[in-house]
Amino acid sequence: MRPSPRLLLVASLIALLSLGLVILPEAPAELVPAAWALLALAVVADALATPGGKRFVLDAPQTREMFVGETAELGFVLRPVADGGRLPGSAMARLAWPQELEGPAQFVLSPGPAGASAGITVRAAGRGDFTLGEIAVLRASRLKLVDVVAVYPCATRLVVVPNIRAVTSGEIDVQIATEAFGSRAALIRGEGSEFHQLRDFVAGMDSRTIDYKRSARHGTLVAREMRAEKNHNIVLALDNGHLMRETIAGLPKIDHMINAALALGWAGVQGGDLVGLYAFDARPRLYLPPGGGRRAFAQLRSRAAELRYRAIETNHTLAMTHLGQRLSRRCLVVVFSDFVDTTTAELLVENVAVLNRHHVVVFVSIRDPLLAGYQRRAAGDLGEVAAAVAAAGLWRERRLVLERLARLGVFVVDADPGGITARLVSTYLTIKARELI
């Protein structure tokens, strides 16, 4: 227990009264000890009449899985240990959140029929496995002369995983179905290199598709229908260096990249291809060989969630060389990385160009909305003018690097965080339809 603001106020008034009685000679001095004794008795009685912290228990949620970048509602209830016990009144709770979780530092537990309860909203700003540990609860005594502070264990475990909302919502499936049955259907099914089926030849079809041996056997003209080849290898190469820890749109770049990579992984699995994962920073950290099926996607998601945030510089030369040695057949390599300027991007461009000689490479980067914002903002002083000029220079250098990669034959996906997934999946479907792998 600790003194409450009310007790401190009453004690201050009694102290002023005591000082006045000492100064005035004709005042009855015996009132001073009587006032302090009365206050002491009130404090003792208040403390004895107030149930202690062990009379209550704090109910909290158990394990909860969250997507990074999203919010969740958590409910807490402070109730008596024994049934029929006295219900607690209003209380104040305090909680120390991990750095990757954003929530209220303190919240009010309002009294109710089952106890004092509160519902709070927490946002996941980073991946990880977090246990809240304990919550401090402050309750006022019956006379509000003392505050009862108790610490209750909190077994709430929040597991923050990569955001696959685009997969669970069916957005990727709809995009794949649109490509498969829309305007590209003829290209995918009619001009591929893999045999799909036989069908009756009708007027308007290309005569080169007629299978004369089977036509003679069936007594009618039949044509071979082809489709784009499947079972390609797709490797998702994630740069996990310090540049990827920069926060854009409320999330680190690496989390935006992982979300887009998993969406592409699901599209690849649904399209019949084999998807693998490669993560690197100063050195290669993880290599998951390409696999197919939903089981492979579950493993891909699990391994991606285990990637830790690192604050070391990326070695693109070592990473791309190691990856090139790992790949034994032509693959689609999707490199998720970033750069600051043309100087720091020189090694990146050279190594991606080497990898592009034997594989199909897609380079994915995220635009920084701040750069465009500085250029559109009206400058009010010389400092803002300098910031706009610097932002324009960085934007120009960025475009030079991306254009250089495009001239080398690399597919470039450069978009805002909200549009990177759709563009990446569309690029994958284009590459597959054109049978470039």
Biggest sheet descriptor: 6 strands, mixed
- What is the name of the CATH architecture of the largest domain? 3-Layer(aba) Sandwich
Strand content: 25-35%
Uncertain stretches of 5 or more adjacent residues? 183-190
- The total domain count is 4
Which descriptor suits the 3D outline? elongated
Describe the oligomeric state of these chains in a short phrase.
single chain
| CATH top-level class of the largest domain | Alpha Beta
CATH topology of the largest domain: Rossmann fold
Number of strands: 20
Helix/sheet category: alpha/beta
Averaged pLDDT: 84
Pfam family, one: DUF58
Organism: Jiella sonneratiae
Protein name: DUF58 domain-containing protein
Domain DUF58: 198-369
Describe this structure in words.
The protein has 437 residues and is of the alpha/beta class. It has 4 domains: 2-49; 53-161, Immunoglobulin-like, CATH 2.60.40.680; 165-170 and 230-433, 3-Layer(aba) Sandwich (Rossmann fold); 198-227, no CATH class. 39% of the residues lie in helices and 29% in strands. It has 13 helices and 20 strands. It has helices at residues 5-23, 31-49, 165-168, 171-181, 185-190, 212-218, 253-270, 294-305, 316-326, 342-356, 369-376, 382-407, 420-433; strands spanning 2-3, 56-59, 63-67, 71-80, 91-94, 101-102, 106-109, 116-124, 128-140, 146-161, 194-200, 222-227, 233-239, 247-248, 251-252, 274-280, 284-291, 331-336, 360-366, 411-415. Helix 7 runs parallel beside helix 13 (420-433). The chain is elongated. The chain starts with a strand and ends with a helix. Mean pLDDT is 84; it is low at 183-190.
